Amino acid sequence: MSHAPARSRLRPALALLLSGGAALWFAWDVDWAPLWTTLKAVRLSWIGAAAAIVLFEFVLRALRWHVLLRPLGAPHPKVSDLFVAQIVGASANTLFPLRAGEIARPVVAARRCGKPLSAVVATAVMERVYDLFGLLCVLLLMTATLGDAMSTAGPEEQVLIRNLTRYGSMFGLFAMGCMAVFFVLATREHAARETFGRILLLGPPPVRRLFMGLFDGFVAGLGNARDLRGLVQAGLLSIWMWVDGAIAIWCLFQAFSMPLPFGAACFTAVAIALTVALPQAPGFLGVFHVAMEKTMLLWGQAESQAEGFAIVFWAVSFLPVTMLGLSALWREGLAIDDLKDVKVLGQRTPDASDTTT
Question: What phi, psi does 50 have (nearest 5°)?
C-alpha cells in the first residue's frame, strides 16, 4: 500500500500544529485591556498608507515578471494579467497551507497569457531567486542605516542581528549560485540539452520525450539570464520591492508612534521573510504574530504595542490582497477550491510539448 496519502496528510497537519501552537502562545499572555487601548490610539492614516504600499508591491512584482517573460517573445503578456496571477497566488498562500500559491500563480499566468506552463514556471523560479537578491540588498541597507543602534543594542538584539545577517547572507549566496546556474543553462543551452538527453537515455522513450519537453520549456523561460538589460531591470525592481516593504513597515512604526529608525524596518522585513518561509497553516496565523511580537519587544517596545503591531501588520499584509485575490477568482470563474486543483487551473493552459517539435 502506498504511503503517499499519509504523507500528504502529515505535512498539512504539521503546518497546522506549528501555527496553532504559535497562535496559542501569542494569545495566552495577552492582556487585552492595554492592547485595546493601544489599538484605539493608532493613526489610521499611516495604516492606510502602509496597506497601499503593500499592494503596490504586487504591481512591482507584475512589472518584474513582465521583464522575465519578455524573452519568450510575442504575444507579450499584459502587466494586468500578471498582476491578477500574483494576487491569486498570494490569496492561495493565505487560504491554504504549504504555500499553495506557488503552484497557482504560474498556472494562472500561463492560462491568461497563453504561454507554455514549463516556461512560466521557470520565470516563477527566477522570481524567487531575485527575491533572495532583494533580501540581501535590504540586509545590506539595514546594516548601513542602523549605524549606532547596532553598537548600542542589547545582547539579545545583537544576537538576533548577527543571526539575521548570517542567514540572510546565506540566502543571498544561494541566489547568486542559482543565477550562475541559470546563466549557464541559458547561454549553453545546446551542451546542457545534450547532457540532459544522455541522462534521459536511462528512461523509456515516453518519459524521455516528456522530460525533454519540460527541459526545453524551462530553459526557454530562463531567457532573462542572457538579457543584460533584463537582468538589470529585474534586479532594480527586486530592490525596489524589498525597500517598498520596509517603507510599509516604517509607516506602521509611525502609526504606533514607535521612534524606530528605518534600519529597524529593514530588519523587520528580513525577519518576517525568514519567518514565513516556515511551513504554516492558512493565513500564516500564529507564527507571524509571535515573530513580530518578539521582534518589537527586542526593539524595546511595550508589550501592548508589540502585540498590537503584530496584529495590524498581519492584517495589512494579508487582508487587502486576499480580498483582491478573491475578487479576481470570481472574475476568472474559479472557485476557492480550484486553487488546490492544478488540473482545474490548468485547463486551456499550454503545456511544455507546445514548444517542442
Answer: -65, -40
For residue 4 the three cell numbers come to: 503517499
User: How many other CB atoms are found less than 10 A from the CB of residue 1?
Assistant: 5
Q: Could you report the per-residue pLDDT of 198-247, keeping only the tens digit for each?
A: 776 666 666 666 666 666 666 666 666 677 788 889 889 999 999 999 99
| Predicted confidence (pLDDT) per residue in 74-117, tens digit | 678 889 999 998 998 888 877 776 666 777 888 888 888 888 88
Q: Three-state SS for 277?
A: coil
Nearest C-alpha neighbor of 22 from the set 271, 280, 316, 274: 280
Q: Let me know: does 270 contact 139? Beta carbons within 8 Å.
A: yes
- Return the C-alpha cell found at 173: 549566496
The total number of residues shown for the chain amounts to: 357
In 3D space, the residue among 34, 27, 105, 41 whose CA is nearest the CA of residue 314 turns out to be 27
DSSP state of 97: S
DSSP structure class, residue 16: H
Q: How far apart are CA 267 and CA 284, in angstroms?
A: 19
Backbone angles phi, psi at 9, to 5 degrees: -80, -30
Residue 316 has pLDDT above 60, yes or no: yes
Distance of CA 165 to the CA centre of its chain: 19
C-alpha cell at 125: 523560479
Q: Tell me which residue of 307, 324, 259, 256 sits closest to 95, measured CA to CA.
A: 324
For residues 208 and 224, the answer to whether their CB atoms sit within 8 Å is: no
Q: Containing H/E element for 78?
A: none
Q: How far is CA 60 from the centre of its chain?
A: 13
User: With 0-12 CB in 10 A as exposed, 13-18 as middle and 19+ as buried, what is 16?
Assistant: middle
Alpha carbon distance 53, 48 (integer Å)? 9
